[in-house]
Automatic annotation (TrEMBL):
Entry membrane topology: Multi-pass membrane protein
Keywords associated with the record: Cell membrane, Membrane, Transmembrane, Transmembrane helix, Transport
Recorded family membership: Belongs to the binding-protein-dependent transport system permease family.
Top-level taxon of the source organism: Bacteria
Name assigned to this protein: Spermidine/putrescine ABC transporter permease
UniProt-listed GO biological process terms: transmembrane transport
Chain positions covered by the region annotation Disordered: 1-22
Chain ranges passing through the membrane: 27-49, 90-111, 123-143, 171-193, 225-244, 279-301
Entries under Pfam families matching the protein: BPD_transp_1 (PF00528)
Localization: Cell membrane
Main localisation: membrane
Amino acid sequence: MTATAAPAVTPAPPKPRARRRSRRPTMIGLAFLSPWLLGFLAFTLYPVLATLYYSFTDYSLFGTPQWVGLDNYRELTHDSTFVQAFTNTLVFTALVVPLSIVLAISLALLLHRPARGLAAYRTIIFAPSIVPAAATAAIWMWLLNPQFGLVNGALRLFGAPTPPWLSDPDWAKVSVLLMSLWMIGSDMLLYLAALQDIPVDYYEAAAIDGASAWQRLRSITLPHLTPVMLFQLINALIWSFQYFSIPYIVGQQGQGKPAGSLNFYAVYLYKNAFSYLKMGYASAMAWIMFIVVMALTIIAIRTSNRWVHYAK
């Protein structure tokens, strides 16, 4: 006699009331998120998509956009001012990104050592990072004044040459670089926090094994700082291409003086959009900036597995 298989029991579909109860937490969560979602849609996603459309049009803010296809992008390749602004920004990026990382790490290492008045030193170095960019530019324009600036006055006391900081194209770039590195305090704090997170046992074991200070720095300290270095590298790349306030103010309200040396990418984009009212042209510049920054960011992330070490 063979056993008869029991018929399969089909679960009953959930009742409508049960389905409504299961969706209730989701709806409550979306209700709490709705202010942010609406703000994101209205003030981030829509402007991004709008600029993509405007980059293919001739648009002056006061008229109807006229479709021109790739004309804006073709014109950019023949625009000598655009090439100058792009080159100035690339040179600035190539200098400020590695220098800011090295300087921030060096300051963090100095301020990590126990010393009297350490909190005061940290505050002094961090304070410039919270000064508004306009105030920073005004202070440094006074400090670097060739005739009565404090920097050249101090150089004269020691018999050193006094550079024409803001009146020479090459020295103007150096001046803007100094102003940028002066605001390194926030980066320094991130490295300082990472240093305090490194276990002391590692240094004690290395000291027992006879490792020198340089070997401990190279084998313990720097590897533990590499995740923060990657974060700061990406931030610095994005920030350098969007660098606007100080070059705009120091370069005499966006004129890029002297000799176009302070004509940076973001400054020229702003002038096209709001001075020349070439919104389509400016949108094309914005998307080229986005592509370049995205490419550099992808390269940094793809190569990070070779030099970034995460604690296990």
